[in-house]
Amino acid sequence: MARKGIVGSYKFGGLWQERERDFSSRRFAFLPNGRTLDFAASPETLFAPANINPNGLELREVTRPTDTFDGQQSVQAGYAMTDLTLGDKWRLTGGVRAERSHQRLVTYDPFAAGLNPISTDLENTDPLPSINLGSQLAPDMILRFGYSRSLNRPDFR
């Protein structure tokens, strides 16, 4: 039986997401100090106990102030979409998702309490539209046209 007119469905929904992360790491490196070492030597030779000393390779902390941070992220989103059948052969699906996000990151040097922390705030509101139009050319063949916009949020790393 052939369909006449427009038949459709509608959907809507929302999202509220909160994330927090605190991170701290320390970096250490073997740095040459004093005499010349053969850096082409095998690791077993280069890192032999005889070479680990204040005049050879010295283990030093190389932690950076950005190796410790606290971060918060919140995302609020809502969407609305429709799926319409237009006659016998055409189908139109479209909608929009609107996202509001706020991300705050504070880095600080855990060994220098007197230094001011470095903080950054990123706030965005993004409309993310989508539309698809399809035509049933044959029982096993659909011709589709589509457009959408998406995004990827920064991560705490």
Compact description:
This protein has about 160 residues and is an all-beta fold.
Name the descriptors:
157 residues; two-stranded antiparallel sheet; 1 helix; 7 strands
H and E order: EEHEEEEE
For the secondary structure, the number of strands is 7
How large is the radius of gyration? 29 Å
Largest sheet: 5 strands, antiparallel
Helix count, DSSP H or I runs of 4 or more residues: 1
Low-pLDDT segments, ≥5 res: none
Tell me the structural class.
mainly beta
Which assembly state applies to the chains in this document?
Answer: single chain
Proportion of residues in extended strands: over 45%
Physical arrangement of strands within the biggest beta sheet: 1-4-5-6-7
Mean pLDDT: 88
Helix content: under 10%
First-last Cα distance: 57 Å
How would you sum up the global shape?
Answer: elongated
Written overview of the protein:
Helices cover 3% and strands 61% of the residues. It is mostly beta strands. The strands form 2 sheets. The protein has a 5-stranded antiparallel sheet with strand order 1-4-5-6-7, with no helix packed on it. Strand 6 and strand 7 form a beta hairpin. The model has no long low-confidence stretch (mean pLDDT 88).
Topology:
Layout: E1 6-24, E2 28-32, H1 43-46, E3 57-61, E4 68-86, E5 90-107, E6 118-138, E7 141-148
Antiparallel strand pairs: 1-4, 2-3, 4-5, 5-6, 6-7
